[in-house]
Amino acid sequence: MGMFAGNTTSALAMQSQDHVAHVYSILAMVILPTLHNARSGMQHVPYFPLVAIALIPLATYALTTVRFQYALRVNKNRKSKNLIIPVVPYWIPFLGHGIPMVIDSGAYVAKLTERFGTDTPISIRVGKLKFTLITNSEHIQSMFKNSRLLTNKPVTIHVLDHLLGASQKVLSFYEADDSGMASKSRVGSKVRSEDRVYYFQLRTAHKYLSGQHLHALNERFMATLGRDLETTDISTDWVEYPDLYRFLQLMITHSSIETVFGTKLLELNPTFVEDFWEFETNAPQFLHAMPRWLIPSAFRVRDKLIKSFMRWHAYANSHYTISETNPDESDWEPNFGSRLIRMRQDGLLKMEVMDAEACASEDLGLMFGLNANVLPCIFWYIVEALRRPSLLVDLQADVANSISPVTGKIDLDKLAGQPLTQSMHAEILRLYIAIFTLRHGETGPVQFSGYQLGTEQLALIYSRTGALDEEAWVRSGRDLKTPLEQFDAERFLVGPDHPLWVESVEEKRPGEDATGSCGDRQFSMEGLTGVWVPFGGGDRMCPGRHYAKTEMTVTLALLFNKFDLELTTMDTSAVQPNLKFAPFGALPPTCALPFRIRRKAAPAN
């Protein structure tokens, strides 16, 4: 096999050289006579340097095209061992595919997927950066099986630098952490246990966004949002608003921030919610590394948010003493809010590099992660329900079936397990999240499906690729009654006659269910690993996904329990997901959506 591959390689290499020579001969035959004629009349025009410059992109594209085809042929002969990741042809040396990736990386990746398919990963060059675009669901599964060997350090540092404005000493601190993600530091690492920032961030999030702490957080959010909805000045008379998204931003974000961060942050900074969403709107510009002089107002509002966090930290630390070991410490108190925030603050302050500004930047990043993605999803959750009155009735029936006869309150675990509610949630994330998952080998190359991801390469997985890949969905055993480009609340439901139906479903933790049944419908995620990836995958899957699901389902349940809502425009087709925010997460709407609302005279129980 090795000899056969070697002979094939030599033959293809000779073919490649002949092809390049042929390309240059054509260029010479076309251009040189033209130059000769032109020079006879214009002796002083420097044509040859201009033509030489013009030849560079042509030659580059010819060479990279030959190299691309060569890799495909070699892979065809090697079958499944030592496969080459072909580099997509490009025109400009060094810059590579930089221009389309900077202008609209999500659209460019989608275009490449449409052009080259999903059978093989392909490589994209952006200056010194090398991205490996992985679009095949089986390849993605193979990659995530090696998640313990992978890291997202380059992405983290980019976000810290450009989105959160971290100082150079903080960036160097993150760069220096080579201790790994296990409970014990990697052999050879000299990082202090207190300075294992990646492990600390992930461990803290997993611990305090799961189990009993997650339950307490969920109950707190439901109570806080319920109180805020009850005290709003909306009466039993219809009142019209011009923008549903803006309405939800101001209402839901206040409740969410108080739930996680406590009451004092908002009390000390009255315009905090408005400031945060102005900052969030400029996230794509920040992440594209635009300088301050191009977006001065965006930098000003970020500076204001950092100062707001610093003001709050100073106040909270002077009024509350954090203790991780105190068994009597409650899950929530007004100064710092949840245990998650207190334990983060306690750990960050033990790191010498984390001064007041650095801690503020860290909490801005956490708030961005907790709010920037969930709010657009809540919006689409409500809009899709309002567009389909029968769907809204069914979702409200799920809520009614989840109310405890003892307490009269919503049983969140029961609501989270309702098949239609689960399918609705999964479909919203499938269609309205567009995010890159980026990983690279932490200590060496990583093998996946016969390919090798080098340490200098970043694996790139785009959530919308699998979300809209008809072949992958058919392979997973799904019936595409509705095109993948359209919304279908029942897409993840199967009936008793479906091959994915499970006769006996063991009770699983809410939010983790691969299946969940009720009557003649069953929620199922079977076969969709590597296809449905709105949270990434592997060990670094988003730890806040369970709390985000609660925010979505509880918001719809409480909002429609207390109010009547109607869209005031008959045609909502203009309201589309804004792909300008791809590939950075959830997609807000492209335009305002007017609606009207009134309080119900007798709220349903």
Automatic annotation (TrEMBL):
- Similarity comment: Belongs to the cytochrome P450 family.
UniProt key word Isomerase: no
Q: Which domain of life is it from?
A: Eukaryota
The UniProt entry, under Pfam families, shows: p450
In which residues is heme bound? C542
What is this protein called in UniProt? Answer: Cytochrome P450
Among SUPFAM superfamilies, the record links this protein to: Cytochrome P450
Q: Which cofactor does it need?
A: heme
A single MF term (Gene Ontology): oxidoreductase activity, acting on paired donors, with incorporation or reduction of molecular oxygen
Species for this entry: Xylaria multiplex
Alphabetically sorted, this entry's keywords are:
Heme, Iron, Membrane, Metal-binding, Monooxygenase, Oxidoreductase, Transmembrane, Transmembrane helix
Annotated TM spans:
21-38, 44-63, 83-103
Q: Does the keyword Oxidoreductase apply?
A: yes
